[in-house]
From TrEMBL:
This is Acyl-CoA dehydrogenase. The keyword Flavoprotein applies. Its cofactor is FAD. Residues 255-391 form the Acyl-CoA dehydrogenase/oxidase C-terminal domain. Residues 118-209 form the Acyl-CoA oxidase/dehydrogenase middle domain. Belongs to the acyl-CoA dehydrogenase family. It comes from the Archaea.
Length: 401
């Protein structure tokens, strides 16, 4: 995948911001979850750089997925938690075609790109099984009444709105529903975790939560088509990619998009671990010479570099497939996510061990890279689930059961 001068200028501007405004304080920033006010501040900064979910910015950032993959890699190279907060706000894009009540509640947050979103899929006891959620939506007049629970939701405690997967009892089918906190308040609870310490994560509880019927995603998409006449003119994706939302289940299309972004995140973590390990190996001396002169240290650096480059190439291939709505896009996004996230753990581990005792110290970033890398292997589908999806796509035989 080739980048032109515009892509390179975007990358350089983003890198300058991250290295000047985030990197000097990232060790401290990552010690506690960002507040809602802090998150909004980051969204404002990133919007100035051309990254965001308001309609104007999103048309450019997601209209060419090369920007998206550059953004995910570069931000994650410095602070993966920031990228999680950012990218999990994507349901805000769909709120523009939800009910008037929701649009009024969010107000100019949508226009300014300051609406914080969340995606609720995982449920207690269900794990990666999302085809028949226990969260249910019952039709009652011109509203849906939602009952259920979601867990391991990024941005849960700070979101303005969430898009959740629920079982539509009326149609006896899975669907997604947009729920905003002002009109349809729901409770949340914080969850602590191994990595991504700066990214808020929690549970969501829905107890007779009422949402307008236009907040059902399939209805919102219908409204979008009625308004624009063409889904491709409204959604900020390449026209070919819009086909995924029409030919696949919306959740599968969303996951293909998210998993490609997760692969790019994993590449960013690997790049950071490799760069720090290389610098350390050329500076640190033992037995009167830099440790980079020892053969086994060079062996580690070789493996780290190989992991970074192969993960990046596979991720770029997944981006190409996704941009063109290739029939193999679901397989490649899952393949890239599974491979790159697994290799990010291996690469970070090599970095920790190359640092020796210092690799275990919180004074150095390697232990953070390792925790963040390990966290990458589970959200949006574990490595095992990725293998089963790829296996199904290759053989057309399901091994899920």
């Amino acid at each position: 995948m080739q980048f032109d001068k515009t892509h390179e200028m975007f990358r350089d501007s983003l890198r300058d911001y991250l290295e000047s405004e985030i990197e000097p304080d990232v060790q401290e920033l990552d010690k506690q979850e960002m507040t809602k006010e802090e998150a909004v501040g980051y969204l404002r900064d990133l919007r100035k750089l051309g990254i965001g979910f308001d309609q104007e910015t999103a048309q450019d950032y997601f209209g060419d997925l090369k920007y998206y993959v550059i953004g995910s890699e570069e931000i994650s190279r410095v602070w993966p938690s920031l990228n999680v907060m950012l990218n999990m706000s994507f349901p805000a894009m769909f709120a523009n075609w939800a009910s008037e009540e929701t649009q009024d509640a969010l107000g100019d947050k949508l226009e300014k790109g300051e609406a914080i979103g969340a995606l609720g899929v995982t449920e207690p006891g269900s794990g990666s099984h999302s085809s028949k959620p226990n969260t249910v939506a019952r039709k009652d007049g011109d509203e849906y009444v939602i009952n259920g629970e979601k867990t391991w939701v990024s941005n849960a405690q700070i979101c303005d709105l969430t898009m959740i997967v629920a079982w539509d009892e009326e149609n006896d089918a899975q669907d997604m529903f947009i729920v905003d906190q002002e009109n349809s308040p729901f409770d949340t609870r914080k969850l602590d975790k191994l990595g991504w310490k700066g990214s808020p994560t929690g549970q969501m509880f829905f107890d007779d939560v009422r949402v307008p019927e236009d907040n059902k995603l399939s209805n919102a998409i219908r409204n979008l088509i009625l308004e624009h006449g063409d889904l491709g003119e409204a959604l900020p994706f390449p026209n070919e990619m819009v086909d995924l939302f029409l030919s696949h289940k919306p959740l599968n299309a969303i996951f293909s998009f998210m998993r490609t972004g997760m692969a790019a995140m994993a590449v960013g973590i690997q790049q950071a671990a490799y760069e720090d390990a290389l610098e350390y190996a050329t500076d640190r001396e033992t037995f009167g010479k830099p440790i980079a002169q020892h053969q086994l240290v060079q062996n580690r650096l070789y493996k780290m570099k190989a992991n970074v480059e192969t993960s990046r190439l596979l991720t770029h291939e997944a981006v190409e497939k996704l941009s063109n709505a290739d029939e193999e896009s679901r397989m490649y996004s899952s393949l890239a996510k599974g491979y790159a996230c697994d290799k990010s753990v291996e690469t970070a581990r090599h970095g920790v061990e190359l640092y020796g005792g210092n690799g275990l110290s919180t004074d150095y970033p390697l232990e953070r890279y390792y925790r963040d890398a390990q966290t990458m292997t589970i959200p949006d589908g574990t490595e095992e689930i990725m293998k089963l999806i790829v296996g199904y796509e290759m053989t057309e035989m399901s091994a899920y059961a």
